[in-house]
Amino acid sequence: MNDSSQITIYSTTWCAFCKTEKQYLDKLGIGYVEKDIEEDKAAYEELMAKNGGNFQGVPVTDIAGELVLGFDRAKIDAAIKTHNIQPIAA
User: Fold this and answer.
1) Which of 35, 56, 77, 79 is surrounded by the most beta carbons within 10 Å?
2) What is this structure's pTM?
3) pLDDT for residue 2
4) How far is CA 72 from its chain centroid?
5) Considering only CA atoms, which of 49, 80, 57, 19 is closest in space to residue 88?
6) Whole-angstrom Cα distance, residue 18 to residue 20?
């Protein structure tokens, strides 16, 4: 399934790891939706609902319902594989 809505990155504009993660997913050709939790109150509330209000920083990546805290390449790769998320065809 190559639906970019399967991956959501909760981030901020100043987060270096968020930028690195987006570059990584772009390089893999994996689609995602980015939500800035500082600019978008609804995105912040959505994230708090997903993680039980236990905020530990950004990025937080929701990969088909599986939350990955921080830019953890191994966990991101594993979740993409587990949920069979394919690169978007060029």
Assistant:
1) 79
2) 0.92
3) 44
4) 11
5) 80
6) 5
| Position 3 confidence tier, pLDDT thresholds 50, 70, 90 | low
DSSP secondary structure string for all residues of 46-86: HHHHHTTT----S-EEEETTEEEES--HHHHHHHHHHTTPP
Tell the burial category of 66 from Cβ atoms under 10 Å away from its Cβ (0-12, 13-18, 19+): middle
The number of residues in the chain equals 90
Give the residue among 34, 70, 32 at the shortest CA–CA distance from 51: 70
Paired residues of 84 in beta bridges? none
> pLDDT tens, 13-67?
999 999 999 999 999 999 999 999 999 999 999 999 999 998 889 999 999 999 9
**For the chain, first and last CA: distance in Å?**
15
